[in-house]
Each structure stands twice: as structure tokens, then as C-alpha cells.
């Protein structure tokens, strides 16, 4: 058993730390060693920019190196982090394959999914066309779902935190607020509360906990008047589904392009929780102007049509009960 200290440099094979030692001992497959280096990593390609201490446990076996989770030397900004926004560690990821599959089945096999296919049939499609449309749409959606899931799997961060890397520490409030509004609307339809509560937590981690965010979302869900969104197939498909897609589509596109093409999947997790003006994601006073402009350009073209459908949907029409009541008032006999 040997104890040694290594100098680590940044490469592209691991999300947090990367081995390339300048004093690399000659190792054979039969050797094993335990290392406890204190490393100082410089910012390279937005990967790491602060001094970080790692307790690294390494075993050289079959050309594989095993690391424990890193510990940050610099404390995160308390206004940007709480227990709900912290990155998850590998030990906290306890879902089995069956549990993950059950989660997705539960998301798909629900009343809103049935309502979507039924709405398409109501709009003129045959039953098999409605089902085929939903299946085809989910197959297409599978690609961006996998792509957006990569940073969560690799770094253990949620959507509100990931948005900071593209929109800036403060600019991330824009996509998270939009995401929260969409979640509130879905809450009114299917009591889906997880994502909007998380998004509200990101706005003020010191003020909001997940529970408080969930309670606020419950009240806001009523404001969306889901009974109006579901009163007809047109309002559900054209107002709700098309409406929130117009908001979330550009956000997803910006984050994916930034993460894969600009940052090459390399993020500094530490900078995602820092207000340091020299941090990788502080940009211009916490806002990435380019990302915000791209979001505006992506949303503006759909605003007129969306506004038309929203106003049309909110125009109340007297229902049958109101008509009966009116007839009784004017014709008591």
C-alpha cells in the first residue's frame, strides 16, 4: 500500500476531476494505492475555477480508477442553495431500473394522456390516428428528454440549477418562473406539483422550501382556472398544450445548445452556486444577455396566435345550468 500526492489537471472524461499526474508512479495491475491529494484546479473550459479539496480513494485494478464524491473547499452562496437544490450524490440515487420504469409508466398512464388522445379524436382524427399521434410525439420527445437528462445524471443537478449555466445566476429566474407557471397549470389539471415547487425554491432558497413551494403552487393552480382549459378539446390542445410548448421549447433549445455545443457538457458545479463576479456563469451581472435575447426571439413569433387562443378560451359561454336558471326566472310557470 502506497500513499502519494498527485497533481490533477482538467480533461474531458469525468464531470468533476480528471487524472493526469506529472509525478505518476509506475503502476502494475497488481498494485493498489490510496491517495489523499489536495488539488488546486484552474478554470478551463468552464469546468472548474476554484480551489477544491478532494478525498480521493483510488484503486488501480483492471485499468479502472474509482473516486469518492468531491467536497467543495469554498462554501456555496447561501442564497443560491438549500437541501432541495443541492447536487445529489451517487449514494443518494437509489432508484432501481424497475422503479424508474414504474415512474415513467405512471407519468404516461394517466388521465391527461387519455384526454390528449381523446381531444385529437374530438378534433376530427380517427381513434387510431389519435393514439398514433401521441405515440409518435413521445418517440420524438424521447431524444430531447435523454439529452436534457444527461447533466442531471452526470452532475446531480436539477433544471433550475442547470438553467443558471445557460442564462446566468440571476437570469435563470426567467426560465424557472416560466417553468413554474407551466407547472402550476398542470397542477390545476392533474395535481402535478413537484417541478413548480422546485422552480419556486430556486427563486429564493432561503425563503422557499419544497413544501412552501408546493403550497404556493396549489393556490396558483386555482388561478389558472383549469376548468376553462378543459372545457373543450380546442382549449386544451390549442391554448394549453401549444401555449406552454411555445414557452418551454425555446428554453429547452437554448439549454441544449449551450450545454452540448458551447460548453461541451463540461460544467463547474461550484460556480452554479456562486455569485462571484468572476464565476463561469455570472456573465453580465448574473444575466446571459445572449440567452435571454434568444429566448425572446423564440417566443415572439408565437405570441399573436397564442394570445388569440387564450382570449378565445377565456370568453365564457353560458352553460346549460345557467340557461335553465334563466328560463325559470323569466318563465316561473
UniProtKB/TrEMBL annotation:
<keyword id="KW-0812">Transmembrane</keyword>
<dbReference type="GO" id="GO:0005886">
    <property type="term" value="C:plasma membrane"/>
</dbReference>
<dbReference type="Pfam" id="PF02133">
    <property type="entry name" value="Transp_cyt_pur"/>
</dbReference>
<feature type="transmembrane region" description="Helical">
    <location>
        <begin position="237"/>
        <end position="262"/>
    </location>
</feature>
<keyword id="KW-1133">Transmembrane helix</keyword>
<dbReference type="InterPro" id="IPR001248">
    <property type="entry name" value="Pur-cyt_permease"/>
</dbReference>
<feature type="transmembrane region" description="Helical">
    <location>
        <begin position="101"/>
        <end position="121"/>
    </location>
</feature>
<dbReference type="InterPro" id="IPR045225">
    <property type="entry name" value="Uracil/uridine/allantoin_perm"/>
</dbReference>
<feature type="transmembrane region" description="Helical">
    <location>
        <begin position="209"/>
        <end position="230"/>
    </location>
</feature>
<dbReference type="GO" id="GO:0015205">
    <property type="term" value="F:nucleobase transmembrane transporter activity"/>
</dbReference>
<keyword id="KW-0472">Membrane</keyword>
<comment type="similarity">
    <text>Belongs to the purine-cytosine permease (2.A.39) family.</text>
</comment>
<feature type="transmembrane region" description="Helical">
    <location>
        <begin position="282"/>
        <end position="310"/>
    </location>
</feature>
<protein>
    <submittedName>
        <fullName>Putative allantoin permease-like protein</fullName>
    </submittedName>
</protein>
<feature type="transmembrane region" description="Helical">
    <location>
        <begin position="127"/>
        <end position="147"/>
    </location>
</feature>
Amino acid at each position: 500500500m502506497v500513499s502519494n500526492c498527485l497533481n490533477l489537471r482538467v480533461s474531458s472524461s469525468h464531470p468533476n476531476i480528471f487524472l493526469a499526474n506529472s509525478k505518476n508512479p509506475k503502476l502494475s495491475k497488481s498494485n493498489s494505492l490510496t491517495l489523499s491529494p489536495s488539488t488546486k484546479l484552474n478554470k478551463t473550459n468552464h469546468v472548474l475555477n476554484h480551489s477544491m479539496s478532494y478525498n480521493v480513494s483510488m484503486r488501480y485494478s483492471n485499468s479502472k480508477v474509482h473516486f469518492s464524491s468531491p467536497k467543495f473547499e469554498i462554501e456555496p452562496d447561501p442564497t443560491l442553495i438549500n437541501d432541495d437544490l443541492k447536487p445529489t450524490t451517487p449514494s443518494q440515487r437509489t432508484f432501481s431500473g424497475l422503479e424508474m420504469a414504474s415512474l415513467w409508466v405512471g407519468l404516461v398512464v394517466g388521465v391527461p394522456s387519455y384526454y390528449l388522445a381523446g381531444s385529437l379524436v374530438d378534433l376530427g382524427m380517427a381513434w387510431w390516428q389519435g393514439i398514433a399521434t401521441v405515440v409518435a410525439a413521445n418517440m420524438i420527445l424521447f431524444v430531447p428528454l435523454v439529452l436534457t437528462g444527461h447533466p442531471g445524471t452526470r452532475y446531480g443537478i436539477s433544471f433550475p440549477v442547470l438553467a443558471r449555466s445557460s442564462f446566468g445566476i440571476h437570469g435563470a429566474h426567467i426560465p424557472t418562473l416560466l417553468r413554474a407557471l407551466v407547472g402550476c397549470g398542470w397542477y390545476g389539471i392533474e395535481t402535478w406539483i413537484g417541478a413548480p415547487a422546485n422552480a419556486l425554491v430556486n427563486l429564493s432558497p432561503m425563503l422557499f422550501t419544497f413544501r412552501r413551494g408546493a403550497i404556493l403552487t396549489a393556490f396558483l393552480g386555482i388561478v389558472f382556472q383549469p376548468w376553462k382549459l378543459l372545457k373543450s378539446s380546442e382549449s386544451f390542445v390549442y391554448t394549453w398544450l401549444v401555449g406552454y410548448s411555445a414557452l418551454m421549447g425555446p428554453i429547452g433549445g437554448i439549454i441544449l445548445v449551450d450545454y452540448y455545443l458551447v460548453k461541451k457538457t463540461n460544467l463547474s458545479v461550484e460556480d452554479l452556486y456562486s455569485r462571484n463576479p468572476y464565476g463561469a456563469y455570472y456573465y453580465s451581472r448574473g444575466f446571459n444577455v445572449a440567452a435571454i435575447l434568444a429566448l425572446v426571439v423564440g417566443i415572439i413569433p408565437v405570441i399573436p396566435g397564442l394570445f388569440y387562443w387564450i382570449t378565445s378560451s377565456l370568453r365564457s359561454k353560458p352553460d346549460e345550468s345557467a340557461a335553465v336558471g334563466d328560463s325559470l326566472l323569466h318563465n316561473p310557470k
